[in-house]
């Protein structure tokens, strides 16, 4: 089954841009003898990997012919890769998708690449730093701002304004002790 983001206070789509394309995963191994590829998925838009969709693997346009899920890992088969030696040559390659075909984001949905580097303030207006990293988690993501670790849920993330590149957080005692 594909990973799900149901129940998150915010949905932070784990994608990074590579020029005009979006990195949606990385090939981490092979599956079977007929060219199956194990993909460590880095997006919440798992529909981008459905059979019939076009992706780029190692910069080459490929159609996905089949898809299976094993926990949070996708196993895909693509046109032109029918043997294990062809699949092995692709280990480590990025799986990307044309940015122009990205589904629209909903309310409280953000691309991680849009959030990295955003200025972060507490609810009293004190600057905490910039968002350094987003750690994906099974229930919610976690933001790292310097040594501060904050769960990416509405209880702590009070607001995000991409126009002003500003995020407001509620910080409680102990959050800075987790790093």
Q: What's the arrangement of secondary structure elements?
A:
Elements: E1 11-13, E2 16-18, E3 21-31, E4 36-41, E5 54-57, E6 60-70, E7 73-78, H1 84-88, E8 94-98, E9 109-111, H2 112-115, E10 119-122, E11 127-130, E12 133-135, E13 142-145, E14 148-151, E15 157-161, E16 166-169
Parallel strand pairs: 1-9, 10-16
Antiparallel strand pairs: 2-3, 3-4, 3-8, 4-7, 5-6, 5-8, 6-7, 10-11, 12-13, 13-14, 15-16
CATH topology assignment of the largest domain? Elongation Factor Tu (Ef-tu), domain 3
CATH superfamily caption of the largest domain? RimM
Evaluate the radius of gyration.
18 Å
Strand content: 35-45%
Indicate the mean pLDDT: 84
Oligomer: single chain
Order of helices and strands: EEEEEEEHEEHEEEEEEE
* Number of extended strands: 16
The DSSP helix count reads 2
- Which structural class fits the helix and strand makeup? mainly beta
Specify the overall morphology: elongated
Q: Residue share in helices? A: under 10%
User: What is the makeup of the main sheet?
Assistant: 6 strands, antiparallel, barrel
Straight-line distance between termini: 32 Å
Second-tier CATH architecture of the largest domain:
Beta Barrel
Reading off the top of the CATH hierarchy, the class of the largest domain is best stated as Mainly Beta
Low-confidence stretches: 1-17
Give the number of domains.
Answer: 2
Strand order of the largest sheet: 3-4-7-6-5-8
Structural account:
The protein is mostly beta strands. The chain has two helices and 16 strands. The protein has a six-stranded antiparallel barrel with strand order 3-4-7-6-5-8. Strand 2 and strand 3 form a beta hairpin. The longest helix is centred in the middle third of the chain and has 5 residues. It is elongated, with a radius of gyration of 18 Å.
